[in-house]
């Protein structure tokens, strides 16, 4: 091809492959041992780092071990590029368990990313943190999941639900209640995506905790159609199990059809009862759905009815039970879902719970699935088979849907043949048999043999068609018998064997009326060459040797033929010849007894010399058993005398066909829930759970809690879990024993309960309580925090400072500084844009009279123009536009009783503002989010000007008055991801002129810091502590503590400011915040660090 251009098919193929690779990352797999990865990881360009990480992931995909790059990869976790972060997270997930110590170094970055404004980054951090299967970080991972379960972003909450099973796999028994509580919170989520993931978590963690489902049952049913498809499957199963556990099975359903079956009108529409319904099989199916493996193994009889197993108290009615009605209504539309598994799950609910007259609605959706892929078609057929075995009339009118297609796989063909044999009726059998005639001619002879077996099953079920089937089967036997060497054609012998076995199945119904058919089979023995077919015919000789008048007279001739051909027969045929010989001898008539006895003795002699040990053993066994017959020259006229021996009785039971028949149900007496893997593999697959016992769960209505109550309980559980998990094993913490710890957190005791603002108290109070130096106590309280907090406040302290941490502390009283606080002013409108009108606003620390969610803002109006300004007013631009649900999501856990409070309390209108005049007005504002500005409309002189009122994070909190002990206790419950710190510089104290007048330097520093904080935020000063051992010029170790609560949720927020440096020089401050609201806390931390750096004209 194209030889004139020098190209071949191979070169063209390579060129085509090269074109397809353009614009992709396929080139990363070409040089797996590229040595340029390490320099790229240390590059200052994000694109090169991204290229290196992609190469590492390509090597991992090819099976290479690249764990030696772990330290360099961990370094890049702090990158600002989201693409690099994502690739780093994928790498860490793969190698975290192999390199646990290095992985712990990146935990602090994960905690920071959990507060990132980008929800994708928060979700990636949570996925990675939960995917690192280390017990030492499990408490922190649980706290992170608890935090993200309340995240405003849907994707983050979904990732939190997906992380719960990973934490559960760590077998954290002490945290199991908190994990289950988080599952309940996520099940109550308003987002369908979160609910689907929560259903998967519920199935993995606590599938029998139906109390969580009961609290949200109706909501889950309503949201079910909107859940993603794979979540729908799990949620449907969960709802079904809950309804069965709480209310039991439905009396009108198929599962309890034995209760007054004839009265429900099911048979009147479908005709014959035996063809419409198999009561024993239905009772067996319902029992298998509910019983566990132990009960199944202990069950000895499979034909017990389920009717006796259920009390009337364990059943319910569709008309009287609202929960059952809702479940059936919400799953009915899902019967036409695009996902085959969803259709099967919904059909399973209808099959188990729906009334008999409504079960038919599952038929057409299931038949529609037969047009899907081969794999789906096979799974659907496996489930349809169970339905058809119990109620054949459901699918009988649709027999044409089960006709074989040439493209069907063999397994699908086999199931379709079984279906056709199950649902065949007298009206459809003619069409089915014509279809079977074509199948028998199929080149796939194994499939043809299965078709012949299906014909036998149809003839056995329908007593009116055996003659038609027998004629066709006998013709097939004659045709196959003269077809030559069948063993050389793959599967050809199976057709003949199945034909003979099908004939034998039909004969069993009425052997006497088919005597001529049996004789035809006997006469065809010489032409049948297949061993299995010959063995079946020989078996029929022994079974029907005394049938009618013709067959007994043929026994001598047939027996002689079997003895003559014994040497050349196959082993399985020889075994049947021995059995038949014994049966013929037992039932022999007087005139033929001697001849038959000699023939049997000859056959036994041949059997004793056979090369096959099975044949020899069978011969000796039969010869010993029939010794009383073989020893007689004449048959005993008095048969009673011969049966007195044990051998005679055994022979009568074995060969006289007096053994109990084996029930066909025992061949397959185990069924599994529709749509489950176990129903496909026909055994209990790992993870399979049967339905719970009916009415085994009692739901109490008073157990239901409001959303806020459940969230509050979950938060308390998480806090308690952190307290109980703040210890690590000695092996894990030994290498960190030499690290520093923050002694000031344990230095205050009950002596600090005195009021710091009391004028009667001395300026400085000495505390004699030193920090405990017991290594075990320090390890139990601080080791985990030091392990995971990279920016611990003591990590950068000098050795002298660390030594002083073990000394006494002094409490400094700075008096009342409230009168000197000057809140910062912001500009809302400048005179240039406002035609001479200038508007400034200041946040106040006053408590709003409207609601706890409002912030008081003082607005200053100034007229800088030469004209009067009239009708000045501020209005909310988005009034009543924000829905309560969205508002509730942004605000957090605000009290639901304030949802109807307006966003802006209307201010008093300024009728006229003269030139140079100023006026103040108080407005009360409710911000939707702590970072989003409020859009207002300013009206003046008939104009409308849009303005933005930006929130100040420092005033979205309220003071929280607590003691030092309470501060430390709350701080100890908020370690790890709830603790964030940042360093900044502070210079205001240097410009304080009072320092030159002999005023105490420490007191001046404390006052400067306190005034700076309180002028920019609404906080409560808890305490000021100073190490006693400090020199007069050293302010290192000075610590100020502030406390507050978030305005919208009343969650505690603690602030600690630690000083480092000389009194007369610029100071370094470490600001630390402890708060459960990660996003709010990090934003406030940045706000405090920024205004601490700002310089002011004077601290006074």
UniProtKB/TrEMBL annotation:
- List GO terms (cellular component aspect): AP-3 adaptor complex; clathrin-coated vesicle membrane; Golgi apparatus
Any single biological process term in GO: vesicle-mediated transport
Keyword Ribosomal protein listed? The answer is: no
* Cited function: Subunit of non-clathrin- and clathrin-associated adaptor protein complex 3 (AP-3) that plays a role in protein sorting in the late-Golgi/trans-Golgi network (TGN) and/or endosomes. The AP complexes mediate both the recruitment of clathrin to membranes and the recognition of sorting signals within the cytosolic tails of transmembrane cargo molecules. AP-3 appears to be involved in the sorting of a subset of transmembrane proteins targeted to lysosomes and lysosome-related organelles.
Source organism: Brassica carinata
Family stated for the protein in its record: Belongs to the adaptor complexes large subunit family.
Q: List localization entries.
A: Cytoplasmic vesicle, Clathrin-coated vesicle membrane; Golgi apparatus
What is the protein's name according to its record? AP-3 complex subunit beta
What are the residue boundaries of the AP-3 complex subunit beta C-terminal domain, all occurrences included?
780-932
Q: Which domain of life is it from?
A: Eukaryota
Question: Is Phosphoprotein included in the keywords of this UniProt record?
Answer: yes
Q: Where is this region: Disordered?
A: 702-775
User: Which keywords does the record carry?
Assistant: Cytoplasmic vesicle, Golgi apparatus, Membrane, Phosphoprotein, Protein transport, Transport
């Amino acid at each position: 091809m194209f030889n004139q251009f020098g190209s071949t098919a191979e070169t063209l193929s390579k060129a085509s492959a090269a074109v397809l690779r353009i614009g992709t990352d396929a080139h990363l797999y070409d040089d797996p041992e590229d040595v340029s990865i390490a320099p790229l990881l240390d590059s200052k360009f994000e694109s090169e780092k991204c290229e290196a990480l992609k190469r590492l992931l390509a090597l991992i995909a090819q099976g290479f071990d690249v764990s030696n790059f772990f330290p360099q990869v961990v370094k890049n976790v702090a990158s600002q590029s989201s693409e690099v972060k994502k690739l780093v997270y994928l790498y860490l997930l793969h190698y975290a368990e192999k390199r646990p110590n290095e992985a712990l170094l990146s935990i602090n970055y994960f905690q920071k990313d959990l507060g990132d404004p980008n929800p994708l980054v928060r979700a990636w951090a949570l996925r990675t943190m939960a995917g690192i299967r280390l017990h030492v970080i499990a408490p922190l991972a649980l706290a992170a999941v608890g935090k993200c379960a309340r995240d405003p972003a849907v994707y983050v909450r979904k990732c939190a639900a997906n992380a719960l099973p990973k934490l559960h796999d760590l077998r954290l028994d002490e945290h199991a209640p908190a994990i289950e509580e988080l599952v309940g919170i996520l099940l109550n989520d308003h987002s369908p995506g979160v609910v689907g993931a929560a259903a998967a978590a519920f199935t993995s963690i606590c599938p029998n905790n139906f109390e969580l489902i009961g609290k949200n049952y109706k909501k889950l049913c309503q949201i079910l159609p909107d859940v993603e498809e794979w979540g729908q499957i799990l949620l449907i199963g969960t709802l079904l199990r809950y309804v069965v556990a709480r209310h039991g099975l439905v009396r009108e359903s198929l599962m309890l059809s034995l209760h007054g079956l004839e009265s429900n009108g099911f048979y009147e529409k479908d005709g014959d009862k035996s063809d419409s319904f198999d009561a024993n099989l239905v009772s067996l199916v319902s029992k298998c759905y509910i019983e566990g493996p132990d009960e199944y193994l202990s069950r000895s009889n499979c034909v017990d009815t389920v009717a006796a197993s259920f009390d009337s108290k364990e059943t319910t009615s569709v008309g009287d039970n609202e929960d059952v009605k809702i479940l059936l209504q919400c799953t009915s539309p899902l019967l036409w879902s695009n996902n085959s598994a969803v259709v099967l799950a919904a059909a399973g609910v209808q099959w188990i719970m729906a009334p008999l007259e409504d079960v038919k609605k599952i038929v057409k959706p299931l038949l529609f699935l037969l047009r899907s892929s081969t794999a789906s078609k096979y799974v659907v057929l496996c489930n349809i088979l169970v339905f058809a075995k119990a109620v054949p009339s459901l699918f009988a009118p649709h027999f044409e849907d089960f006709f074989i297609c040439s493209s069907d796989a063999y397994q699908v063909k086999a199931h379709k043949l079984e279906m056709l044999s199950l649902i065949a009726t007298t009206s459809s059998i003619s069409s089915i048999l014509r279809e079977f005639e074509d199948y028998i001619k199929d080149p796939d002879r194994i499939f043809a043999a299965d078709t012949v077996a299906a014909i036998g099953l149809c003839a056995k079920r329908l007593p009116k068609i055996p003659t038609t089937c027998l004629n066709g089967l006998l013709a097939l036997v004659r045709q196959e018998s003269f077809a030559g060497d069948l063993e050389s054609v793959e599967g050809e012998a199976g057709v003949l064997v199945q034909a003979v076995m099908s004939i034998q199945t039909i004969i069993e119904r009425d052997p006497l009326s088919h005597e001529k058919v049996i004789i035809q089979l006997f006469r065809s023995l010489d032409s049948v060459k297949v061993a299995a077919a010959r063995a079946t015919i020989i078996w029929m000789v022994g079974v029907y040797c005394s049938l009618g008048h013709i067959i007994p007279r043929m026994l001598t001739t047939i027996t002689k033929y079997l003895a003559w051909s014994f040497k050349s027969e196959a082993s399985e045929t020889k075994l049947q010849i021995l059995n038949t010989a014994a049966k013929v001898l037992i039932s022999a008539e007087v005139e033929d007894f001697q001849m038959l006895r000699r023939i049997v003795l000859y056959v036994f002699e041949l059997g004793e010399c056979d090369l096959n040990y099975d044949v020899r053993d069978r011969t000796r066994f039969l010869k010993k058993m029939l010794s009383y017959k073989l020893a007689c020259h004449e048959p005993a006229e008095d048969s009673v005398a011969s049966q007195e021996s044990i051998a005679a009785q055994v022979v009568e039971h074995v060969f006289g066909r007096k053994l109990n028949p084996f029930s066909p149900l025992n061949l397959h007496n185990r069924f599994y829930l529709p749509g489950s893997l176990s129903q496909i593999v026909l055994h209990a697959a790992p993870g399979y759970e049967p339905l719970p016992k009916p009415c085994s769960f009692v739901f109490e209505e008073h157990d239901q809690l409001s959303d806020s109550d459940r969230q509050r309980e979950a938060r308390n559980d998480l806090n308690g879990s952190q307290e109980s998990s703040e210890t690590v094993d000695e092996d894990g913490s030994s290498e960190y024993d030499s690290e520093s710890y923050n002694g000031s957190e344990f230095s205050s005791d009950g002596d600090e309960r005195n009021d710091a603002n009391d004028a009667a108290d001395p300026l400085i109070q000495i505390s004699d309580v030193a920090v405990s130096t017991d290594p075990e106590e320090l390890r139990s309280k601080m080791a985990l925090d030091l392990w995971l907090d990279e920016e611990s406040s003591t990590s950068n302290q000098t050795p002298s400072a660390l030594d002083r941490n073990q000394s006494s502390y002094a409490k400094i009283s700075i008096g009342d500084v409230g009168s000197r606080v000057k809140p910062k002013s912001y500009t809302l409108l400048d005179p240039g844009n406002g035609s001479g009108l200038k508007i400034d606003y200041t946040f106040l620390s006053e408590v709003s009279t409207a609601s706890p969610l409002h912030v008081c803002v003082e607005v200053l109006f100034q007229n800088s123009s030469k004209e009067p300004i009239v009708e000045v007013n501020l209005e909310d631009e988005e009034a009543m536009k924000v829905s309560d649900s969205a508002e509730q999501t942004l605000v957090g856990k605000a009290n639901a009783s304030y949802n109807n409070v307006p966003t802006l309390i209307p201010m008093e209108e300024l009728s006229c503002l003269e030139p140079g005049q100023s006026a103040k007005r108080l407005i009360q504002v409710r911000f939707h989010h702590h970072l989003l500005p409020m859009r207002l409309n300013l009206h003046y002189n008939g104009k409308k000007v849009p303005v933005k009122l930006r929130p100040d994070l420092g005033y979205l909190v309220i003071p929280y008055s607590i003691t030092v002990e309470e501060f430390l206790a709350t701080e100890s419950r908020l370690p790890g991801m709830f603790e964030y710190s940042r360093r900044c510089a502070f210079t205001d104290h240097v410009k304080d002129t009072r320092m030159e007048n002999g005023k105490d330097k420490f007191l001046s520093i404390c006052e400067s810091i306190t005034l700076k904080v309180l002028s920019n935020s609404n906080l409560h000063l808890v305490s000021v502590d100073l190490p006693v051992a400090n020199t007069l010029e050293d302010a290192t170790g000075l610590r100020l503590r502030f406390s507050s609560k978030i305005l919208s949720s009343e969650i505690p927020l603690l602030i600690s400011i630690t000083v480092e440096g000389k009194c007369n020089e610029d100071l370094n401050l470490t600001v630390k915040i402890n708060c459960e609201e990660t996003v709010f806390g990090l934003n406030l931390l940045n706000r405090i660090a920024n205004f601490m750096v700002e310089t002011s004209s004077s601290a006074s």
